[in-house]
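Team,

Forwarding the record for the chain on the shared tracking sheet. I've put the sequence and predicted structure together so nobody has to dig through attachments.
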Amino acid sequence: MSPSPDRVIERGEFDALFDALSRRGYTIVGPTIRDQAIVYDELRSSADLPIGWTDEQDGGHYRLRRRDDEALFGYAVGPQSWKRYQLPPDRRLWSARRDTRGALTDFEEPAGAMPRYAFLGARSCELHAMGILDRVLLHGRDSEPDEHPFVIAVNCGQAGGTCFCVSMGTGPVADRGYDLALTEVLEDGRHYFVVDVGTASGAEVLDDVTHAGAQADERRRAEEAHARARAQMGRELDTTGIKELLYRNYEHARWDDVADRCLTCGNCTMVCPTCFCTTVEDTTDLTGERVERHQRWDSCFTVDYSHINGGAVRSSTRSRYRQWMTHKLATWIDQFGSSGCVGCGRCITWCPVGIDITEEARAIRESDAGA
């Protein structure tokens, strides 16, 4: 689709976007507040959004606090990512029954089509993460057209305390993977959204919402918001030769230092939008007659994940953290053609002891024997 001029939706017309998507049969998922965090869940209207809230983030620290305005998207990112819709945390693969001779019969696979999702509020780093995860899960194959969600991205007007998307080249402005992209602007008592149309489907939905062409001043305000976000990055990561840096430092003393702090809890992998480790578990009911097989999220931080005949390959905390960070920033590039990190900062925020991947990389670089 050729580039189209930016449009503007006033705040008072925003709920028409929900109506347009609902009429097309979409289940709308986006940010809302639950359990003192901003999470992704089904939305009915703009009233379900985190209106007037922002998030305060640092290493091992996350708090919601009130803004002094009524912004709908005035936060960075929460603990959840869109990964849960690409790779569900718990997916039943099949169920069966055991007959009187002990043989499995009556195999059943999950029935029913997935909902037609519309994702509202995806940030640029998250769009990159969805693209990375698609490459991993689909092995280069294209997904079916009816599996594609309708994506409404939101360009960042402020960065979080642990964000470093600028370092990773993944934000803060969406450049791919969206049908519509919004930039929220609040100024002089006016509240509006500058809209970039990414696809023909996006243009069709926008036609059902009252809008106008963006004026030069409105576009300038949106660009100023983008510039503020770029300047506010809470972290930065020097990616120059990062793969080679980590490859030649497998025995660096820093791995012992981080092992003294790491709890191997796996929080970083659970909140990461690209980590894809899973395990398969078989369960039975109390009678032993019904059997189910599930695919569930796992983590390279668990001892059992690397267990083979004779024991675990990575039995120490040192080896497990090294595996995670080296895979994310180095071997992922060899496997999939890009880094596995998009700079969202979740692993830093949600680490109980505040371990910071950018600080660990910096420490190794500063004392790199091969430099």
